[in-house]
Amino acid sequence: MTTEDFALEGGCACWGVRYRLTAPPIYVHCCHCHWCQRETGSAFVLNAMIEAGRVELLKGEPLAVMTPSNSGKGQKITRCPDCMVALWSNYAGAGDALNFVRVGTLDDPDRVPPDIHIFTDSKQPWVILPKDKPSFPEYYNRKEVWPAAALARRSAALGR
Description:
Low-confidence stretches: none
Radius of gyration: 15 Å
Strand order of the largest sheet: 6-7-8-9-4-3-10
CATH topology: glutathione-dependent formaldehyde- activating enzyme (gfa)
Number of helices: 3
Strand content: 25-35%
Number of domains: 1
CATH architecture: Alpha-Beta Complex
Number of strands: 10
Order of helices and strands: EEEHEEEEEEEHH
């Protein structure tokens, strides 16, 4: 995916909040940790990391809710105030500079497959990981895995 002419829209279940990604995600995590399983009520979460400025709010006033996190630093989850669907998260390490968009809230989530599977030590045993994607038992060193362009976008977003 290239950033030119890119647009992908998404929103909550009641259509009260709508947003648009104006660029492809920097990197997409499929996280299998128990914390994400509990938080989502599913076997994993798909988070598309993208610069916050590339998430354009089209409709509604989402609600940011601070929640506990496995790191102990908390995370801010942005939700629809009516149906309470989680749209994206912000984690302490990146603050408000990077949004971790819940891929399932995109109108066309098939366009945003995971780049990597993480915390696979705690994945559900019936989940079969694809052989063509990297996977790690816990977290990983992004400098060893990410393409240079993704690293540059993340650094620019964080002002580094």
